[in-house]
Input
Amino acid sequence: MTESIKIADIPVIDISKPGTSTGDELISAAATSGFVFVKNEGTGFIAEEIYGAFELASFYNLLPISVFLETLDPENQRRGDFKEFVPPITLISNPTSSIIDHAHRALNFGEFVNGKAQQPIPESLIAHEKELSDFADQCHCLCIKILKLFALGLKIDPQDGGEDWFSSRHDPSKGPSGSILRLLHYPALPPHADYIPSFDIRAGAHSDYGSITLLFQTPHQPGLEILTPSQTWASVPVSPPGTENDAFPPILINIGDLLSYWTNGYLKSTVHRVIFPKEARRGGEDRYSIAYFCHPVNDSILVPVPSEIVKTRGNGAKEISEKDVMTAEEHLNSRLAATYGWEKEEKKMD
Output
């Protein structure tokens, strides 16, 4: 894989008038690059809400680490309720050093119930609990809208569930899910850091686990890259052409591993990473982003999507066999196990 040499070609789609044609556009993007921008109109968000969430994200990053360590027990960290809080580090890169791929801080929130978090949160954030809950609810509503459009684009027959095929399996009234709201902070490079772009990155190459991810970004804070089919990295703009004067950057949506699995590989779960942009050589700046990882209800059975498009345009392999059918929770646990080595830990304990 080589350094970034181009800008990713990711379409910007207007979802303010949802319908089959909009669904077709979204499916085309999801099947090609796995990423798509959606214009502000029709998302249900206004600028004040998004920038308010970013103010909260910057507020928590000014708090001492000890505040977070009080509520970060190892089991919660491992299971994803919280991601380990990583302090800023001085990069010392050389051919024998390990790649720096954890130069970021993150605070995760699982689902809220009646406006309340279901895991411990720092006392200083309790006053903002409803604000966080409302933002997560809005994220989920947007995900439901996108999932309905996906179903339209995949031409799922109304008798099989039609536009509600995916959304009905993401209905929080039917049970808990693995959905997560994550506030992210990528600190700027220290002034005298030994910076080597090919070694030093903010978040290592990965794909997301769930159905879809919403990514909110702030203007002029680039760094996200996607891996192209030619195995080169392409930079993802924060404000693609035509959106530079919008009230807030368009929301970026990407396909997760579960939805790709569900559609037999037709919709692409694309590997991506976050780098220090070139201007980081001159000190750069902090990068803030907010991600919402949308998952189906835990006990949703990942049966084949009833779509002729999926059957004919999938990855060519046979459809999900009966023995391969699993629940959404089992799929998530399998991905977490592969990432964090849970299976290895369990074998050592046997």
Summary: The radius of gyration is 20 Å. The CA atoms of residues 52 and 131 lie 9 Å apart. The first strand starts at residue 2 and ends at 7.
